[in-house]
Amino acid sequence: MKKTILAITLLFSIISFAQIRGTVKDSDGNPLPFVNIYIENTYIGTTTNELGKYEINTTEKNNVALIFQYLGYKTQKQILNISQFPYDFDVTLQEESYQLNDIIVTNTENPAYEIIRQAIVAKKKNAARTDKFEADFYSRGIFRAKDIPKKFMGVEIGDLDGNLDSTRSGIIYQSETVSKIKFEKPANLKEEIIASKVAGDDNGFSYNTALNTNYDFYENYVDFGINMISPIADNTFNYYKFKLESTFYDDKNQLINKILVTPKRDKEPVFEGYIYIVEDSWAIYGIDLDIKGYRMQQPILETMKVNQNFSYNETTKIWAKNVQSLDFNAGIFGMKFTGKFTHVFSNYVFKDDFEKKTFGKEIVTFAENANKKETSFWTETRPVPLTEEEENNYVRKDSIQNVRKSQVYLDSIDAKSNTFKFFKIITGYTYKNSFKNWNFNYQGLTNLSSLSFNTVQGYNLDSGFSFRKWNEETGKFTSISSTFNYGFAEDRLRVKGNFYHRFNTINNAYINFSVGSTISQFNPNEPISNIVNSVATLFFKNNYMKLYNKEFAEISYGKEVTNGVFASGKVLYENRRALFNNTDYTLIKNDDLYFSNDPLQPNNYTSVPFEKHQIMKASLGTRIRFGQKYISRPNGKINIQNDDYPILSFYYEKAFGASNSNYHYDLISGTVDYNKTIGNKGDFGLRFKAGKFFNADAISFVDYKHFNGNQTHVNLFNNSLNSFNLLPYYTHSTNDAYLETHIEHNFKGYIMNKIPLLNKLQWNLIGGFHQLNIPNMKPYQEFTVGFDNIGWGKFRFLRIDYVRSYQDGFQGDGIMFGLKF
């Protein structure tokens, strides 16, 4: 019995380690990275790593035909007869001897144009050949950083959990996954991640999946955050120039055309580089294209290189992508970043159809113990061997993690950071227990975001305490906090407390309880921020923020009840009291008076906008995301919005138990949100908001529906689909029915990048329309035209809009200034 077990074990070992391995170099002895290697007429393949090393698994020994394919070099076929595994086999590739037919060269039009036309005609047929398949998928990602400062804007960066060496450089992220995928064009995916590994993370659940790797150049647009135009798009000749640089024959005597792709205009979402097209079938043989960061509207990104290699199977007559890589380099503030993703597709099984219910809302799952695979598994399975740097990084990061996750280390680090010094009474203080995942924080008194000014409180300051505890494996999170707000002109301290607990990160169930005293804007959406109001008040004497006092208690609960449907409920009690101005202080002296704190009567300094009262409210809300898909991770659920459908939200609120029964009412409201990228013509967005009050004729003005207006000409957070630009804050508040319409289209450079000189600005044209309908008033309308992506070099955070407003005729116009992040 023992001999039988031993024999089985040995046989399994031989099969598991049945590897052909070696190094691929050029004729000068330089290693060639990312050479496409596969067994002829199969979909068993791999690629070389950055040092030209490869490994490929097979159980065959006799007449193993290996194909070595590398863009710019002659394809080699090597017939191997293997005596034992592992089998070492090195290869030297010769540069391709290109040729051009003399007759072709003399044509008035470069022959590349006719080849591209043929590729466009044939692309639907070629794409359909690979529109349904199963495959094994391997992904590896690595990010490097260089010249990272010790501090940034006064904040200590540290060594990024041991990722940076003494030169402030190093690998800051490295991971890989092995999975089995089922795919159906255009976007149906079912992926099971068999193995996942992250350097320095024993949980090891990588975010590398096949989900965002379908860069399909047979489509008109290739999604890189912005829709880039494929060199064989239907309208490609509007965007590219082509030149046939050379032709060569592959190992199967198929003629391959190497075509130079050049943009017609520099600032458009276009590629540059080479596309390789197979003669007669007009299929893609290879992709070697670059993207400039500014063409993706990602100025921090300098360049990204996209490389795809396709292999041919004589049995199926299919050219299938088996290797894909993306290299990028980026930089900002003197810091430099580089990265690379490598994707290997192998063991294809092409399908005519999939069984019903193959594809559902769950698109990615993790196999049990996917993050616990032994080193031997990776050695056997990994199709691209690690470089020595990558191997050392795994060992180093895992060792660092073992040290830095130990209680001894964490306690020693905490002991240093937990040291209390007197000046922290001013600056703030945090006490941590990193091993047990909790911390206690005192906010301090010098946080600029906590200091503001309004005419009710004068200068006012926030401070407070908080306690947080979390569990990374279960997703549980608990926060207990308190906020102390003191208004100097009012000479009043307000205190509120909050308890929040998230039960998990699967359905994101939570409970929240708040109680205390606070000062609040009449519009609970707080359309004017503290910083904008402070500047408007102190420098221009425009005190737009209107405030009232409330003592309150509220409890809320919410969770995702089923995929795509999130429901929540809330019960609250409020004791409300109107407030008056308590200061006329300003930094820019003038004789104008501040307006009163009455939102409806700015010159009323004696009477209150509402009587003191108490009220209770209960509300129910739900948000529905149609077609939502998701990734199931062992420690949570990641939802993925389907932009083919709108998002619907419904809300019901009932006021009861008020000290004045006239304040009771019912409110039903809903919202429709829709955002869609339209080819390369930009992003379209709309929001409809509607509601109706019942039994609300005499309710408190606090409970009216207030609209997000703006009188400051500053749109700090760029919430253009949720606000009006010139609408006064409270002139249209209603206790009846209402309908808001917000429409905007950002052309993402579609028009601007075609206009000479203006295209050098790299600005994006934006058009918008806003309308508000309430009973007994003509509709309020705004028409906007503006630009975003305004700035210099890599810093493009500004947006400017020109706005004209109408209500029963022209009302006014103005310029809006905003920030975009």
Structure description:
The chain is mainly beta and 821 residues long. Among the domains are: 2-93, Sandwich (Immunoglobulin-like), CATH 2.60.40.1120; 451-526 and 533-653, no CATH class; 664-821, no CATH class. The chain is 11% helix and 46% strand. It has eight helices and 44 strands. The chain has a 19-stranded mixed β-sheet that branches. A hairpin with an 8-residue loop joins strand 17 and strand 18 (272-278). The longest helix is centred in the N-terminal third of the chain and has 18 residues, at 112-129. The protein is globular. Residues 1-17 have low confidence and may be disordered.
Q: Which helices and strands, and how do they pair?
A:
Blueprint: H1 2-16, E1 19-26, E2 36-39, E3 45-47, E4 53-57, E5 64-69, E6 76-80, E7 87-88, E8 91-93, H2 102-105, H3 112-129, E9 132-146, E10 151-152, E11 155-156, E12 170-184, E13 188-198, E14 221-223, E15 227-229, E16 240-249, E17 255-263, E18 272-278, E19 284-292, E20 301-313, E21 318-332, E22 335-350, E23 362-366, H4 375-381, H5 388-404, H6 407-417, H7 424-427, E24 429-433, E25 438-442, E26 451-454, E27 458-470, E28 477-487, E29 492-502, E30 510-521, H8 530-540, E31 547-562, E32 565-578, E33 613-625, E34 629-633, E35 636-640, E36 647-656, E37 665-677, E38 683-694, E39 714-715, E40 737-746, E41 764-773, E42 780-792, E43 795-806, E44 810-819
Parallel strand pairs: 1-7, 1-8, 13-23, 23-34, 39-44
Antiparallel strand pairs: 1-4, 2-3, 2-5, 5-6, 9-12, 9-22, 10-11, 12-13, 14-15, 16-17, 17-18, 18-19, 19-20, 20-21, 21-22, 24-25, 25-27, 26-27, 27-28, 28-29, 29-30, 30-31, 31-32, 32-33, 33-36, 34-35, 36-37, 37-38, 38-40, 40-41, 41-42, 42-43, 43-44
